[in-house]
Amino acid sequence: MREAIGWETRLMIDANQKWGVEESIVRIRALQEVQPWWMEEPTSPEDILGHARIRRETKPTRIATGEHCHNKVMFKQLMQAQAIDVCQIDSCRVAGVNENLAIILMAKQFGIPVHTREVLGSANMCSIFQRSTSCMFQERCRSGSLNLSTTCTSIL
């Protein structure tokens, strides 16, 4: 694979939650000779302590997870446990703008880069923000109120 893409190209490998903790460690160590940019979802994202162990025992390979995390609590636990190097948020899976913002801000606080993980990627995130902003503006115009606490959730 490395010969085909070259050493200057970043290689990201996705295990798609296929392995347990022990197998993840063995396989990631074996793959380190091709210098992957990251290993994605080596095990179930619910296994936060397992991810922490995998990350500890397979450095310098970066561990990326989050595509299948459903809320900010899971992300918080992954970050607090130092279980991930890359936060792969799926903006559609995590329940709206507020949850997305909370996760992005937490990742920033922990110094963890965020990479969106959905079919439309960043375009989908922009769409969510655009729709929510438009909705709030329309509601304020309709109600005649400039109260910044006014929100509209019917479209979201």
Secondary structure layout plus pairing:
Layout lengths: L1 H4 L6 E3 L6 H11 L6 E3 L7 H10 L5 E3 L6 H9 L5 E2 L9 H14 L11 H22 L13
Parallel strand pairs: 1-2, 2-3, 3-4
What does this structure look like?
This protein is an alpha/beta fold and 156 residues long. The chain has helices at residues 2-5, 21-31, 48-57, 72-80, 97-110, 122-143, and strands at residues 12-14, 38-40, 63-65, 86-87. It has a four-stranded parallel beta sheet, covered by helices on one side. Strand 1, helix 2 and strand 2 (38-40) form a beta-alpha-beta unit. Helix 2 runs parallel beside helix 3 (48-57) and helix 4 packs parallel to helix 5. The chain is globular and about 45 Å long. The protein starts with a helix and ends in a 13-residue tail after the last helix. 26% of the residues are buried.
Strand order of the largest sheet: 1-2-3-4
Structural class: alpha/beta
Number of strands: 4
- Gap between N and C termini, in Å? 43 Å
Shape, principal axes of CA atoms: globular
Contiguous runs where pLDDT drops below 50 for at least 5 residues: 148-156
